[in-house]
Amino acid sequence: MKIAVVGTGYVGLVSGACFADVGIEVTCVDIDQKKIDNLKNGIMPIYEPGLEEVVIRNFKSGRLKFSTDLGEAIQGASVAFIAVGTPPGEDGSADLKYVLGVADEIGTKMTDYIVVATKSTVPVTTGEKVRAAIKAALSKRGSELPFAVASNPEFLKEGAAVEDFLKPDRIVIGVDDERAEEIMKRLYKPFQLSGERIIYMDIPSAEMTKYAANAMLATKISFMNDIANLCELVGADANMVRRGIGSDPRIGNKFIYPGVGYGGSCFPKDVKAIIKTAKQYGYDLRVLQAVEEVNDDQKYVLSKKVKEHFGEDLTGMTFAMWGLSFKPNTDDMREAPAGVIIDELRAAGATVKAYDPVAMDEAREHYIFDKVTYCKDAYEALVDADALLLVTEWSEFRIPSWDVVGRLLKNKVIFDGRNIYDRKYLKTLGFEAHGIGSK
Ligand SMILES: NC(=O)C1=CN([C@@H]2O[C@H](COP(=O)(O)OP(=O)(O)OC[C@H]3O[C@@H](n4cnc5c(N)ncnc54)[C@H](O)[C@@H]3O)[C@@H](O)[C@H]2O)C=CC1
Ligand SMILES: O=C(O)[C@H]1O[C@H](OP(=O)(O)OP(=O)(O)OC[C@H]2O[C@@H](n3ccc(=O)[nH]c3=O)[C@H](O)[C@@H]2O)[C@H](O)[C@@H](O)[C@@H]1O
Asked: Buried b vs exposed e over 172-186: b needs ≥16 C-beta within 10 Å?
């Protein structure tokens, strides 16, 4: 079986490599020539645990190819996945220009029946727009070639993307064509050896499922951040409360960790987009509006704690920051709370010395530019710093040598944005540690 995956980013590259890993012939297509050349030379465009190995193994075997030529890639392919970006437009709605651009190109270049499956996160009714774009391109050529559209939203998490793709909780397929359903079933068979995991539905429901899933997860996080902020006011400990409620299986113990707000390329944009979709239909998604508001405020919680401790004016002070990426095990800096925290500290007159195990190049090049001093390791960031801010919970920050930390910092003060440290223990070592959701 042969497929094409158009868009070789987090989703396209991981999906393409994992499909190739189960024996499918895959061509990953991108318009970015440099990305494609690099991949052919074994250079990954992103940091994702386990990805390099799967890509290189399958590239060497010949099952995984990289190309900028969409026409060639879809020749003989049963499925063309659209996995390009859907960034937020100015009004918050998902910008579909890349998705529809690919649909148009497929319609222009296809030579046989093909299933066009959208993997990008797209608002409900996009399936119809994709179908219309392909039809319009075909009719320009005077062609009536048959094709099907499908919605196959992706649920992988960055930092665990390969694992998530290879062992999915579920595979959602929105489809309205029997032949297409059969092809998708065949394609996904290897990923559900431990039980039937495909949920078939109509295309609009599949499109909505993706937004509802991300919106639900974002809601859990904002809910817990709200509760954590209240815990702090009333003298309760959010960590205890988290454990107390998470043990109820109806609530579950995942995605209820308070912190510095959710970031990344998905929750912020997808919550905005579903709110916008609702508005277009004259409906207010009030819960999600609050989810977004809580999250926007939560990004300021850590810098507020710093100012409560040291005063509003931080002129001449230096802060060490451990972690920049929006979560561990990724170099993705999109919507990372670190950006807001750095801006707040700088606006109050402070300088920031940062260390992140993998995201510093990305931060330096695209997001935080020259706003911070980048350090070669976690300890270097502490030298002459007035306090430490833990922003991303990378494993290597979990058990530092506290005696070294204490010696390097000017003050033994820590602001733990992810509640990874045992503050009672740190107190016995002479540290004053502030967490999220308890005094
Ligand atoms: N990043 C993630 O963890 C997840 C992302 N998604 C969704 O998947 C979609 C893609 O997201 P990412 O992979 O993060 O994006 P990305 O920005 O990492 O990659 C998109 C790629 O598409 C390429 N591209 C743009 N126009 C093209 C065209 N006409 N032809 C070929 N390639 C083209 C870009 O050069 C880029 O390499 C988005 O809709 C996102 O919401 C869904 C689940 C997880
Ligand atoms: O649509 C997407 O792109 C993806 O979005 C999220 O994945 P991702 O953004 O990669 O990472 P998450 O692990 O969900 O973390 C998102 C943010 O929430 C924060 N978070 C997560 C969990 C938690 O308990 N508390 C919390 O603050 C993280 O620190 C991070 O900033 C979803 O988890 C994926 O299922 C989905 O496919």
From this structure: bbbbbbeebbebbee
Asked whether the ipTM of the predicted complex exceeds the cut of 0.95, the reply is yes
Dump pLDDT digits (tens) for 364-423.
987 776 789 999 999 999 999 999 999 999 999 999 999 999 999 999 999 999 999 999
Q: How confident is the model at residue 195 (pLDDT cuts 50, 70, 90)?
A: low
- Kindly provide the residue ranges of all beta strands, DSSP E only, lying in 24-122, ordered along the sequence: 25-29, 64-67, 79-82, 115-118
Residue 255 alpha carbon to ligand 2 centre in Å: 8
The whole-model pTM stands at: 0.96
Amino acid identity at 316: G
266 an active-site residue? yes
Query: If pLDDT is split at 50, 70 and 90, which confidence band does 90 have?
Result: confident
Burial 336-375 (b: 16+ CB within 10 A, else e): bbbbbbbbbbbebebbbbbbbbbbbebbbeebbeebbebb
What ranges make up the beta strands (E) of 346-429? 351-355, 373-374, 387-390, 413-416
Instruction: Tell me, using a 6 A CB cutoff, whether residue 157 lines ligand 2.
Output: yes
The finding on whether 165 has its CB within 6 A of some atom of ligand 2 is no
Write down the CATH number for the domain with range 299-434: 3.40.50.720
Q: Residue 272's pLDDT band (boundaries 50, 70, 90)?
A: very high
Determine contact, residues 44/139, Cβ cutoff 8 Å.
no
Give domain 211-297's CATH number out of 3.40.640.10, 3.30.365.10, 3.40.50.10240, 1.10.1040.10.
1.10.1040.10
Instruction: Specify the residue with its C-alpha closest to ligand 2, atom 13.
Output: 157
Domain definitions of the chain by residue range: 2-201, 211-297, 299-434
Q: Is 92 left (phi over 0), alpha (psi -120 to 50) or beta?
A: left
The answer to whether the CB of 327 is under 6 A from ligand 2 is yes
CB 82, CB 120: distance < 8 Å: yes
Q: How many residues does the chain have?
A: 439
Beta strands across the sheet bearing 2-6: 64-67, 25-29, 2-6, 79-82, 115-118, 148-151, 171-175, 198-201
Distance 214 CA to ligand 2 centre (A): 8
